[in-house]
Amino acid sequence: xxxxxxxxxxxxxxxxxxxxxxxxxxxxxxxxxxxxxxxxxxxxxxxxxxxxxxxxxxxxxxxxxxxxxxxxxxxxxxxxxxxxxxxxxxxxxxxxxxxxxxxxxxxxxxxxxxxxxxxxxxxxxxxxxxxxxxxxxxxxxxxxxxxxxxxxxxxxxxxxxxxxxxxxxxxxxxxxxxxxxxxxxxxxxxxxxxxxxxxxxxxxxxxxxxxxxxxxxxxxxxxxxxxxxxxxxxxxxxxxxxxxxxxxxxxxxxxxxxxxxxxxxxxxxxxxxxxxxxxxxxxxxxxxxxxxxxxxxxxxxxxxxxxxxxxxxxxxxxxxxxxxxxxxxxxxxxxxxxxxxxxxxxxxxxxxxxxxxxxxxxxxxxxxxxxxxxxxxxxxxxxxxxxxxxxxxxxxxxxxxxxxxxxxxxxxxxxxxxxxxxxxxxxxxxxxxxxxxxxxxxxxxxxxxxxxxxxxxxxxxxx
Length: 463
Description:
Layout: E1 16-18, E2 30-34, H1 44-58, E3 66-70, H2 74-86, E4 89-95, H3 100-108, E5 112-116, H4 128-138, E6 142-143, H5 152-168, E7 175-179, H6 184-196, E8 201-207, E9 241-245, H7 247-261, H8 267-280, E10 289-293, H9 307-312, H10 323-329, H11 346-356, E11 360-364, E12 375-380, H12 381-390, H13 399-402, E13 409-411, H14 416-423, E14 428-433, E15 436-442, H15 443-462
Parallel strand pairs: 2-10, 3-4, 3-6, 4-5, 7-8, 7-10, 8-9, 13-14
Antiparallel strand pairs: 1-2, 11-12, 14-15
């Protein structure tokens, strides 16, 4: 009988499929290694079982112990599956950019989940790395696999994923593309493929802003790939090229693959496919590109595959007049993203408002281009006046002490009708374009646009 002894025996041996639709016009085939068929739904199942096996052999994880790990969700699922089979408790630390269904999934496996802000540096006590370290020290018999530094992570891919790809492509793979997260997949698969044929090219698909493609690691919206530090599991000597992919291209590619190929892939899969399509366009019919799809789109239904969420972040464009049209009508008059830092004093905020003739400003931590997660609140003239009436000392206070909640957001491609509805409840909106704050639109901007539209329509009638 072909019956697996446990769910852990089902990890690996994932299939490869040609991307016939999205790759139809390319000079060489692009084929996808579908890690979605692992029992936990992602490539992280491989590293999870290898890391726990090694910890048990080394005596680092004892019976009845607790596994603690910072994760974007997928590693947590893999570890939770191993824990369920072997009787361990789990505590996973995630950032607040992780889709809610992924958090629910971790809890469905019986794990405890701690959510931290994504908009803090790795060494901040509130970061998800630091929080995981604290939890390990607080919990008796706790073990942190630390996928970012654990050699078993890349080793799992050297021993399993790499050989599978080599065999499945009949030794003809010429380029391997995968997202750069911990670097375990790229380093492990890359090392194996190069051991078989040194000419095989290893390509990292990386979110714009991540350190691998030269960024600072500031927040971006794609989950599970990119970093704000250099993990030791990433071997840069293995990687031949890094291709940076925007959030917008990642998400739209994920949707395209799902609609055209019938493969529901996640945002990080979109990053990898986008990079592989760009790469393949440069190659010849003798080449063969293998792109690793790390997980399914089922964990992103409330985000990447939700039209409302995508539109609000400026990734989709509505029919008819949009916020982009409002900005275009004021080109030259609409300032770029004018904002204050939380540590700035109120006097500076007032000066900026007067300089740019606005009555409110976003409060954000970081330099341009900002990420949406870095916008912390807002400050407006009315709030300052109310505070100053009670005490003139408010002008010397930090903006953070007196700021109001964040402005409502609207996508640059959303309709003017939607903007009118939102401005009925707030004096200004923060405009997001490609997931990033672009500028602020106030009631006066909408009134000016609508007035111009009305005059144009009236003039056309008279003609």
